[in-house]
Amino acid sequence: MSGPATNHLTQSRILLTDQTPTRQATRVPAGEPTVLSESTSPAIRTEAIHLSTSEPNEFWDLTGLVRDVVARSEVRHGQVTVYTPHTTTSVVINESETGFLNDYRRMIQEAVPEGVYYEHDDHAVRTENLQEDEFINGHAHVRQLMVGQPSVTIPVVDGEVLLGQWQRVMFVEMDQARERRAFIHAQGV
């Protein structure tokens, strides 16, 4: 690439590095996690974090917390699993960058829109797993299945969680403002 386009890209990079970041792609959990279980031989530690989500397609960066749990577990070689027990949330590994996450939000809304027919929401035909205060959230279930899974597992070597330079461990709310939980389970030697 040469000419004006190169200059434009270079200037953009300089402007971005000279500015104080004002956008924040994710939320970070506040408060202390709850220890559910721990042992020393082998080293195993499971902690729960409680989240109060505020909107659909909201991302929570759990990376620092994951590293803290591994440090508290004293696992030197093993793995850490981050798990959510909710069918309309996911745990993903990706870059925490506002533009990318806004692109995701726009694309998932186009691919799986709200306000269209989902059989999950049609209580005239649905007979399974119903509850009295059922949310209309078929779109959130479909989004969860398309986007990710309820857990990720990451190797731990020499006490370090092996993530790439830009990789972050993120909890994703697909539904609506709700009380949620995520579990972080480190194990190894």
Characterise this structure.
The protein is an alpha+beta fold and 189 residues long. The protein has a single domain, classed as Jelly Rolls. 26% of the residues lie in helices and 32% in strands. The chain has a six-stranded antiparallel sheet with strand order 1-2-9-4-6-7, with helices on one face. Strands 3-8-5 form a three-stranded antiparallel sheet. The chain is globular and about 55 Å long.
- CATH topological fold name: Jelly Rolls
Helix content estimate: 25-40%
Q: Based on helices, strands and strand pairing, what is the structural class?
A: alpha+beta
Rg calc: 20 Å
SSE layout:
Layout: H1 4-18, E1 34-40, E2 43-52, E3 58-61, H2 63-73, E4 77-83, E5 89-95, H3 98-111, H4 138-147, E6 151-157, E7 160-161, E8 167-173, E9 179-188
Antiparallel strand pairs: 1-2, 2-9, 3-8, 4-6, 4-9, 5-8, 6-7
